[in-house]
Amino acid sequence: MLHLWLIPALPLAGFLINGLAGRRLPKALVNAVGIGSVALSFLWVLKTVLAVEAWDAAHVERYFTWIESGDFRVGFDLAVDRLSTVMLLVVTGVGLLIHIYSAGYMAHEGGYYRFFAYLNLFMFFMLLLVLAANYLLLFVGWEGVGLCSYLLIGFWFLKKSASNAANKAFIVNRIGDFGFLLAMFLMVVTFGSLDFGTVFGAVEGKPPGTLTLIALLLMLGAAGKSAQVPLYVWLPDAMEGPTPVSALIHAATMVTAGVYMVSRSWLLYTHAPGALEVVACVGLFTAVFSATIGLVQTDLKKIFAYSTVSQLGYMFLGLGVGAFSAGIFHLMTHAFFKALLFLGAGSVIHALAGEQDIRNMGGLRKHTPWTFLTLMCAGVAIAGIPPFSGFHSKDAILLAALHHAPWMYWVGVITAAMTAFYVFRALFLTFFGRYRGSAHPHESPAVMLAPLAVLAGLSLAGGYFPVTHWLDPVFHTEEGSHAAWAVWTSVAAGLSGIALAYLFYVARPGLADALASSLRGLYTLIYNKYFVDEMYDTAVVRPVVSGSRGFLWKVVDAGIIDGAVNGIGARARDIGGLLRLLQSGNIRNYAAWVVAGSILMILGIGMWGGAR
Amino acid sequence: MQSADFLALLPLIAVSAASVSVMVLIAFHRGHRSAALLSAAGLAAAFAALWPAARVAPRTVTGLLTVDSTVLFYSGLLIAATFVVAVLSYGYFEKRETRREEFYILLLVALCGALVLVGSRHLVSLFLGLELLSVPLYGMIAYLPEQRRSLEAGLKYLILAAASAAFLLFGAGLIYAQTGTLDLPGLVSLIRAAGPGSLLLPAGLALIIAGFGFKLAVVPFHLWTPDVYQGAPAPVAAFIASVSKGAILALLVRLFAPVLEVASVALIFTIIAIASMTAGNILALLQDNVKRLLAYSSIAHIGYMLVGFLAGGQMAATAVAYYLVAYSITVLGAFGAIAVLANGHGEPESLADYRGLFWRRPALGAVFTFMLLSLAGVPVTAGFFAKYYVLAAGVSATVWLLALVLVLTSAVGAFYYLRVLVALYARPDGRREVREEPPLSRADWVLLGTLAGLLLSLGVFPNLLLAVIRRTAG
Question: Which pairs from A145-149 meet CB under 8 Å and 24+ separation?
Fold first, then answer.
């Protein structure tokens, strides 16, 4: 026994302590509990990784039977294998750094202990998701992280926009979860089990149509959680939450759950090539589509949010072209540099007392030198400049794409150039030129800078972790292409993106505006995110809302909402008024429904009653 | 009647005796605590009497009542739920000025009605049970005469319940005119064998379904629910949701499942189930009043249970029984949390009243959270398995449309529970005055703690309950 249950149980204990008693605890103790529980969990992961000797099969621990009906059994089982170790290390490692950072970032906020309680609860569900040995337990974690994300976005609950964003995240994710649930039901019907081992062992020889359907439904779930087209709309809005939340949940961990789930189900996908092709196309389209939106945004966090959507698209592209280990590799390096970008952005926002618009920044290089340096590290990593981390993982994906279908490679390269451009556009506008704002910028405290430094180191050197090598026995992936020209082309794309950003925003600052005004129509279209939100709003949200309000509310509910006393009560106070109750509209309305329903039923049974 | 008959009816006798004893006690000594204690003791005795009754079951008593393991299982559920309501009512009325003692008489009599209803095998005992359940409810709903809404709700319920009882009675009359029998098992097999061929029988059947539909509050007979839930004292709303609806549903599953072989009846129930799931969930979306929200949600939950009923077969009976237990625990817990938060002036109703509750009263907030998660069907709560088993029953019976609607609408449904949840966990709004929240008594703590514990343990070890159901009601 490795006591895997301890890994999620430690943050859960942290949540319980801070949630129930945090109000009465001194701040230092809240910190110690919140950060310490994650640190212990991280150490236990390390110990587990070192303790397992044979990695050929998953190490499963069965605790007890959860559901049993007939032959169908779902256990409360946790498992660890090569794939989940990567995830565990990323989640607890990056999670720990973000927890430490939060201690500085949230120091002045009300409800400090509550914030840590939520973060710990999130860690619990995320670790449960990664350690689950069957789809149902994974789904428990899946729902749980969604719930925490919802609570943490809404942490700024006094802001109307924050609560709207939380609602949107919830609704969009329900669509994805619906797919996931249906996939699980199909699996129960097809395989009679939800256990990873049993399901994957029985994939051989099952009808490809069913497998494709299951794989597509799972992808729908993954698209919701990992913000892929068409369900990506919630992630940019989720940036209303505090910045450490964006870093932890909406960059490094939760949003990668979909990538993890699809990789976990890789045997299903390799037996359903059609579905795998869909995964590749969705990923690629998401990558390029959201990269274009990122080009023109002006809110620092929104830029990085669209960047996250785009990078997640890359990961799905990797999975879709069969390079599962490259996808997971990119998941890891992305966790490093994107967490760093968000935390750095948080440091800038903190320095400027809440300013998020890059048009009101500039010249911060001098005021916040450490933030500047670490963010530059993240910039070169995400731009794919060798030898930094993003180069290794992104190239592994692009080479696999080239091997699969050259056009995918080329679209990927163009996206890489855009990525380099928008990230450095943000960085140049923030740190170079003159300061355009009115606050008094100051560097962040050491407790915030230390995690930045560690993440910067990981972003630079993280490409040398032998992740693909470690994962090779899991996926038996086909070899990617080794064309040297392809490597240099993508690097050149990244460099030209940076150069272009330098030209536009440092060397010749007027150029960008000139270009924008000469392409006014295109600019407006992209700046408004292709009006997708408006389209969804007009096509789906408004009809549903007005339909339910107009029809159901008025007709079925007879227009009585929210404790209206209808004046009946007032009249009923005198005895004579009691009689008038019978004449009141509502009660007659209710009775009319009862009568109409009964008559319809009599007619129904009377007409078709004979037909048996 | 033989002595074994008395033994079989012992739970019912115990409840009746308790109601009479409380009445006599009040005549000599008016005391809230003693009345509540006596009722609780009577309910405990009735629960204990289930075991002696089980020894002589199955048994038909006087041609009016059946006592078998299924009936005893549901009787146990109803008695336990009433016990919870009694404890909640004690805490609730203790804070108020009204004459409180008579409430327990009404409560016990209503339980008598529910027990008769569950065990009835004759249209006469069915009607008697239904009325015995309804009439005390008028009083219970309107038990706070100083509150206009309570009075209004009582009157609305009275008028509509009386009308629907008249429907049911008329339906029974039509059936008798056609068939010459009022014996339920006989009627069911008659309808099953011949179908409701001519005019009178289908009309009678439809009117009886309408009567049931009213009590269950399914679309289109649901309109009274939000008003009554909102106006009634919270423990009474809990009683309606768990005992009053549970008794009808149990009867439906126990006796009327064979009638579903008639295509038109199955079709009508299918339409009712779909309409209830859809309308209940969508209307709940628009609510800011937590009690009304729970009312609409109960419409949807009855719809879910009807899916199990419609699926038919062994698995369905188990699924509905499990669902009913899980739902009763949940709804008692949810209304229980509302009841303990009530002060002398009223109950917390709007979402704003619950804002930041978790941070003011962590334990109570946690209990409420579990109840909401269970209602939403989130894993690790009993509500998840309840929904799972009903869905599994639906899927295995290949009623695809119902299963699909269930999944879709419960996805919608999760949303409004989360709205309440978010309010519970939101930062307390500094601008708003927090309403006065009274401290909880020890009995309330034990009760709510037990309910939450039951909910979680059934969510983690559902087999505990399933084993009981398989031995009795399954």
Answer: A145/A249, A145/A253, A145/A254, A145/A257, A146/A170, A146/A173, A146/A177, A146/A225, A146/A254, A147/B378, A147/B418, A148/A118, A148/A121, A148/A122, A148/A249, A149/A122, A149/A238, A149/A245, A149/A249, A149/A250, A149/A254
